[in-house]
Design goal:
With 90 residues, the chain is an alpha+beta fold. Helices cover 22% and strands 19% of the residues. A three-stranded antiparallel beta sheet has the order 1-5-2, with helices on one face. Strands 3-4 form a two-stranded antiparallel ribbon. Strand 3 and strand 4 form a beta hairpin. The longest helix is centred in the first third of the chain and has 8 residues.
Length: 90
């Protein structure tokens, strides 16, 4: 990716469908120099049946502009109302 875009400041974010930071896809990205900001597998996808850490943000490791980067997981105060209004998965 770095060579293709000729850029070192790549940020990867989204639904990686990885249940744990030690899965091969995430290991490949961390070995390629990315830092998984959800490496503690915080829950980002919640339904009545599943609690999963699918969403992740990966930043270039060792770059000074990302040294204080963190991934925050925000949850609505009124969970049921939020999911009823904005989601079809609950």
């Amino acid at each position: 990716m770095r060579e293709h875009f000729d850029d070192e400041d790549l940020i990867l974010l989204g639904d990686f469908n990885c249940l744990a930071a030690d899965e091969s896809a995430l290991q490949t990205l961390t070995m390629a120099g990315f830092l998984d900001l959800n490496n503690e597998d915080a829950i980002t996808y919640a339904t009545s049946q599943h609690q999963s850490p699918f969403d992740r943000i990966l930043v270039p490791a060792g770059q000074s502009e990302f040294r204080y980067s963190e991934q925050y997981i925000l949850t609505p105060a009124r969970t049921r109302k939020h999911f009823t209004r904005y989601s079809t998965t609950f």
